[in-house]
Amino acid sequence: MKTTTIFCVLFLLLLNSCVATKINKSNKQNYSELKENKMYIIKTKKLGNIRRFKFMNETNDSITGLYKNKELQISKNDIIKINKFSMEKTVAVVIPPIIVIVALSNINTNTSGDFSIPWR
Question: What's the predicted TM-score (pTM) here?
Answer without folding.
Answer: 0.61
